[in-house]
Amino acid sequence: MIATGHRGGVSLRHVAGLHRLHALTLPLVLLAGFVVISRVFDVSLDDTLIRATPFVFTGLAVAVPARAGLVNIGGEGQFVAGMVFAAGGALALDDKLPAIVLLPLLGFLGAFGGFVWAGIAAVLKVTVSLNEALSTLLLNFVAPLLLGYLVFGPWKDPANYSNLPQTAEFEDSARLPVYGLTQLHLGIPLALVAALVVWVMLAFTRWGFRARVLGGNPEAARRSGIAVRRTLFIALVAGGVLAGLGGMIELTGIEGRLRPGIGVGFGYIGFLASWLVGHRPLEILPAALLLASISIAGDSLQIDHNLPSTSVYILMALVVLAVLGLRGGTRRAEG
Amino acid sequence: MFVEDVLIGAVRSGTAVLFAAEGEVISERSGVINLGTEGCMLTGALAAFATASWSGSPWVGVAAAAGVGVLMGALHAFFVVTRRANQLATGLAITFLALGVTAALGSDYVAVEVNPLNPVPIPLLSDLPFVGPVLFNHDVLTYCGLALGPLLWVLLNYTRWGLVLRATGESGAVAFAYGHSPSRVRYLAVMAGGALAAVGGAQLVLAYTLNWVENVTVGRGFVAVALVIFAAWNPLKATAGAFVYGGAVSLQLQLQARGVDISPFLLNMTPYILTLAILVAATRGRAQRAPDEIRAVFGTAGA
Predict the structure, then answer these.
(1) Total-model pTM
(2) Best of B83, B214, B256, B292 to mutate (most A CBs within 10 Å, chain A)
(3) Complex ipTM, two decimals?
(4) Which residues does chain B have within 8 Å of residue A331's beta carbon, measured at their own beta carbons?
């Protein structure tokens, strides 16, 4: 490309020393950032782990489609859809089924909610080639309105004297088990498992290989007989399933009832986490930890300095922009 | 009466999106998608609102918004043109940055009032039945918005400037071969797009909502990006798309005002679902008509 051939990038990369850094450098830098922020703002490890859990799921929800060359901005809506579907199941069944049956069922429902929300975009992608970045983005604005409709209307807690827009609190059978007297819930190890499963799926299975070929070179994928539409569909709904599961885990692990405002921004933070590490599933873990520590530090800024909690987006966005800018040139996920 | 109210509202609520969509047409015709359009609108809205409240003049606010929009566009251009970072990820990160900055700086302006952009009825025309109130009884920025689509259409299709812009969007290499710097064209286009989006944000707070709240745009910038695809990168169709969106917003507000017994949450979904629906209706095969350099970003895996 004569036109776009430029040399500015090389020098910047030299300055940053990025041209000969080991593959482990970025995760280590992210972890170092996490440690520094935790120390400076006195953020507890428990809080960070709890906050990082949904970011891992919404990050993976971006990473899987990205490997197939898709841009899923819809983690935000898919996460909320997962919460709504799981909450419906919990409200209907929490006094009828024991936890050992109900929780897997709610997990399935949450995943199904994410599946439906991403599925709309996936169907539009493979039938009329509607760009998935825009369709998932627009659907993000619909899901919270569905939640609002339900908690202000049909699902509103009837025994609720303060008249708050929220559902009744779920019975214990619809709550994830916690460790001892802490708030550390089962979702935290599940996030770790999810990252491992996604890593194995992308790196070692036939489907993962097909997705990576498709993401790397669609034309080559088509010519070598890969079922392009099916692979794209699966990649996008797999992202939705992960985000929906994350929503279910946040709902049953932390909240215990559905109300507006849960998980606002979590999907977008997951998007930033995944782009931060070039969509490598295992590296999403340190990225989620760093963004979680920033997020918690923001909560204390809000309390101490009366700044809106969204102010932390500034630091998150700057971290991601710095990495995007330094990495440069890469238009697709690296293998 | 109901139809007239809905149409008046369509123009009033569609104008902010109209500015942003026309800006995005310029940007995308040069080969750059800017999801930061949402962020440009937000920063423009706050800059306009804050400046208007200091100076007392909404027009100083509009100018400030345009200036901030140019800077936001330049930021996006730096990352995607100079650093060649991914356009969609950069745009979203910039929107996030804008959301944080405007939330932090804007908290002082939440309960503030400003001198708005008042409607200026056009003599004689505004007295026409039906058409008068719908089209000729608005603030001056809305009139500018109405003129923007046709103006841009002429600029794009019948001037040398438009030719260079379109050539850059189709193939940076070809534009380069003819002696134009694609980087320079893209920087200018994205900066112009940012300025228009920011003016849209200014119109939103100074002529429509008349107050500042955190995330006041609620996705209007994203809708604008979507409308550009619906419009097939044609400024005239982008105008139409913006008013269809405005119509959906206006319709649901009028229904609520008339006490229709549907949850406002469900009614609030209509603009987004409608935008999605018209995208679906318009998308069949449309990717083929996108500027080539945009297809390189959007179409990595066309089904």
Answers:
(1) 0.91
(2) B83
(3) 0.90
(4) 84, 86, 296-297, 300
